[in-house]
Amino acid sequence: MQIGMVGLGRMGMNMAIRLVKGGHEVVAFNRTSDKVDEIVKAGATGAYALEELVKKLTAPRFVWLMLPAGKTVDDYIESLSGLLQKGDTIIDGGNSFYKDALRRSESLKLVGINYLDIGVSGGIWGLQVGYCQMIGGDEEVFAQLEPAIATLAPKDGYLYCGPSGAGHFVKMVHNGIEYGMLEAYGEGFAIMNASPYAGRLNFSKVAHLWNRGSVVRSWLLELAEDAFKKDPSLSGIQGYVEDSGEGRWTILQAIESSVPAPVLALSLFQRFRSRDTNSFSDKLIAALRNEFGGHAVRKDKGSI
């Protein structure tokens, strides 16, 4: 089938390539033209403006957005809604907040444009192994797009989750769980790294071992094995961990639903902590320990 792809970043580019390899006709646009040139070499049709992209697509059109969540998505949807026709479909495959999906769906419905929210997981490995997809929106529209979705996915790698917002909701929770899993692995290896056995343990081999029949085996451990092979002590990596929003939204949903989620919440807060190696809270704790127990404090080198 024919698909318009808007946004050729790390995910969008590889998804477009996988679609082309799967026999689909891809018309691709990116804000910077060099990415368009690159995807044309891979077999796609290039478009250097949204107007050009829409003209090169045959109605009913499917335009798949792979863009950063937030205002960027809204801006592109606003532009496309003035170019597309009734019966066309916009797909948001980025990590958008599910309540934004609800709002966008209702807005586009007023002008007769369909909207699907598709949470996509797979990262830079998706081109090779496929993308897990969580789909929300009108089920009939999903069925029309299903050939492309199936091409992007590994076996059993996609699910129609329900009406608008359901796809991004399930992806939001998926990423919240990911935060907790990453934190657990990080803490476990940190304990081993601080143990009397640290000098003898090969963490790459430990990760490999745990992936052979252990109850904690996972793809993340496979990636940990590779990371430790490249840098056994991770000395070349700063312990600064960003968050892209989904963890925060998952915790807000837990609060809204009165569902206890202490592990996920703490994993998010630990990411905040990673960005401050000399946190004020730690300074206060050290000062209080000194006040009530005379415990030694280390001077802040920045104040000397």
Description:
This protein has 304 residues and is of the alpha/beta class. It is 51% helix and 13% strand. The protein is built from 13 helices and eight strands. It has helices spanning 10-21, 33-41, 50-56, 71-81, 98-109, 126-129, 139-152, 166-193, 203-210, 219-230, 246-256, 262-274, 280-293; strands at 2-6, 25-29, 45-47, 62-65, 89-92, 114-121, 132-137, 158-162. An eight-stranded mixed sheet has the order 3-2-1-4-5-6-7-8, with helices on both faces. α8 (166-193) packs across α11, α8 (166-193) packs across α12 (262-274) and α9 packs antiparallel against α10. The longest helix has 28 residues, at 166-193. The chain is elongated and about 75 Å long. The mean pLDDT is 93.
